[in-house]
Specification:
alpha/beta; Rossmann fold; binds nicotinamide-adenine-dinucleotide; Dihydrodipicolinate Reductase, domain 2; single chain; four-stranded parallel sheet
Length: 417
């Protein structure tokens, strides 16, 4: 129940009461063209596919801190206190359930609202009880879980993650390689609850949890919301490549002062973030296919914790590109962004789309939701698609496919027959 989660929850409550507009949300404001351009048939996405209306959403959360959602949102300092005061009643009612937490995975913070149990399997079972109690108490038909918790330290899939049997054995034996986020994901998937991962944590990106997702018919997606600097990268880099412009360097630096920034000061958590941030350019620019343009690209990403800025991050980019005959040029970007304001609509869309996916019988990795992530999950051996415009086309074609509409290829020869 940190900055992103409370900005999302407060935002939905504000929209429900007519106090704001859900800017940035494709499910609420986006449209989808059906048929030919001459058909003039472009409904809103929410009128085209049966999405759950905002009025029907209800929220629960876990956190290591005891603050309710109103107090946590005031602490996060993203939304104005005057707005939060108008939402005090619904927000104060959301009290965080006790967390499953382990400081070896998140080093810079610690809090009192934490479960204790003899084994990781006992913790998973306690989470399942929380989920079932929440569902009953709030009279919910369906649930979705989304990780808006801190970034865990970098770790790779190990022997314990190789299949469901070894994973469950590891839960019973307290295997050190099982992270808290994986215990939450296990609990969700066991109960058939779709799971999205907004952080760069390994979490469901393991054979064991994907096996469980497929076995129980549950959709999953991740990792790491694509919001500020990486969002800009996936807008610009496909453009340079489309024009066959070369690139020798891209240096990105960030200053931010929220709790996320504090956690990312730890080298282990930063390493998780760095991996997802760095992978993007290589996969968009494909230096193996275009060695003359990108083989010597130097790409660096830095994040510095700078408390005065709070949630209002500043991301600087210096891009060294080159054109005809190798003549160099430079581009500078200074993005004064608001992290949680950019992330909140993505949380809303992911929750609504994952619920839709489950009702449509889709299970396992949802590649059509790559649009929302810095490091989209894909089937083993498949490289992820990072170009945001291809991702959007894939998302909209998936919606058309779900509803039995013709897919749009943009060939368009028929207009000239
Ligand atoms: N805001 C963005 O633009 C953006 C973009 C991409 C990814 N993310 C990721 O989203 C996550 C949330 O970001 P934020 O700005 O809200 O951070 P935040 O620090 O404000 O919130 C994270 C919350 O998670 C809690 N937490 C940590 N471990 C937990 C556990 N095991 N169980 C329950 N609660 C736990 C913390 O106490 C904290 O309240 C981070 O991992 C961040 O890297 C954010």
């Amino acid at each position: 129940m940190g900055a992103v989660a409370t900005t999302f929850i407060a935002g939905v409550e504000a929209v429900k009461r007519g106090l704001g507009v859900p800017v940035g949300s494709l499910t609420q404001l986006g449209t989808v063209r059906l048929g030919k351009r001459t058909d003039n048939n472009t409904p809103k996405i929410k009128d085209f596919v049966p999405l759950t209306p905002l009025e029907c959403l209800t929220f629960g959360a876990w956190d290591i801190f005891e603050d309710n959602a109103y107090e946590a949102a005031v602490h996060a300092k993203v939304l104005e206190k005057s707005l939060l005061d108008q939402l005090k009643e619904p927000l104060s009612a959301i009290k965080p359930m006790k967390a499953v937490f382990d400081q070896t995975y998140i080093k810079r913070i610690d809090g009192p609202n934490v479960k204790s149990a003899p084994s990781k399997m006992d913790l998973a079972e306690a989470l399942m009880t929380d989920i079932q109690d929440f569902k009953r108490a709030n009279n919910c038909d369906r649930l979705v879980m989304i990780w808006c918790g801190s970034t865990e330290v970098f770790h790779r899939s190990g022997p314990v993650h190789q299949n469901l049997e070894t994973f469950e054995e590891g839960l019973r034996n307290n295997d050190a390689d099982i992270a808290p986020s994986q215990i939450y994901a296990y609990a969700a998937l066991k109960l058939g609850v779709p799971y999205a991962n907004g952080a760069p944590n390994l979490t469901t990106d393991t054979p064991a949890l994907l096996e469980l997702a497929r076995q129980n018919g549950v959709p999953v997606c991740g990792k790491d919301f694509k919001t500020g600097q990486t969002f800009m990268k996936t807008l610009l880099a496909p453009g340079f490549k489309a024009r066959m412009l070369g690139m020798s360097g891209w240096f990105s630096t960030n200053i931010l002062g929220n709790r996320d920034g504090e956690v990312l000061e730890d080298p282990g958590s930063f390493k998780s973030k760095e991996e997802t941030k760095l992978s993007v350019l290589e996969q968009i620019l494909q230096p193996n296919l275009y060695p003359e343009l990108y083989k010597d690209l130097y790409h660096a990403v830095r994040i510095n914790y700078y408390p005065p800025r709070g949630d209002s991050k500043e991301g600087w980019d210096n891009i060294d590109i080159f054109g005809w005959l190798g003549y160099p040029m430079q581009i500078k970007i200074d993005f004064l962004c608001r992290d949680s304001i950019l992330a909140a609509p993505l949380v809303l869309d992911l929750v609504l789309f994952l619920d839709l996916a489950q009702r449509s019988g889709m299970k396992g990795i949802q590649e059509w939701l790559s649009f929302y992530f810095k490091a989209p999950m894909t089937a083993p051996g498949l490289y992820p698609e990072h170009d945001i415009f291809i991702q959007l086309m894939k998302l909209k074609n998936t919606l058309r496919w779900m509803q039995g509409e013709d897919l749009i290829t943009h060939l368009g020869l028929e207009y000239y027959d």
